[in-house]
Amino acid sequence: MRKIIGKEQSIIDLDLHRLFDLGVFLKGVEGVLEIIGSIGLFLFRNRLVEKTIRYITQGELTEHPQDHLTKAVIYVFQHVTAGSVHFVAAVLLISGVVNLVLVFGIMKKDVWAYRGAMMVLSLLILYQTYRVFYHGSSFLIASIVYDAIIVLLVAREYAKLTKTTSA
Asked: Is 113 buried (19+), middle (13-18) or exposed (0-12) by CB count in 10 A?
């Protein structure tokens, strides 16, 4: 009986470690996408947003020239200030860089990266939870769950890493 439990335990450990690796990989991909998105916002903000909005709303305005919802969407996007777009772009850039630094640190098994990832993700979860109360969003809830799972997996790997380095 003991050997069976040991085998099951090692299979679970391996599966959780694979899930951890996948989560770290996805955080790396997320970081790269955030950096690409921020560069896109910095470089192409006006042209890209205007072309996209024009493309999306052109057909609707042709069919219904007095469509208030479509006009409201156009109005909002025309009055988004460059400063607010640059703020979003800066936040994306910082988030992407932080994600990549932590991912590379974890890949090198640097203890500080595990602690940093747990701290940064925990702060993000707190902020996302605050946002859910004011702007309920199923996407935000899914993001909280995803980040919480990553925190638990990082904590588990951190405990294993510190246990082996101290032994």
From this structure: buried
Gap between the Cα atoms of 126 and 133, Å rounded = 11
- Per-residue pLDDT tens digits for 130-139: 988 887 778 8
Q: List pLDDT tens digits, range 47-74.
A: 666 677 677 777 766 777 776 776 776 6
Q: Residue type for 72, please?
A: A
Q: What are the tens digits of pLDDT across the range 112-128?
A: 999 999 999 999 999 99
Place of tokens 């799972």: 149
Ramachandran angles phi, psi of 130, nearest 5°: -60, -45
Q: Are 153 and 19 in contact (CB under 8 A)?
A: yes
Contact criterion met (CB below 8 Å) for 102 and 116: yes
Residues 6+ apart with CB under 8 A from 113: 101, 102, 103, 104, 105, 106
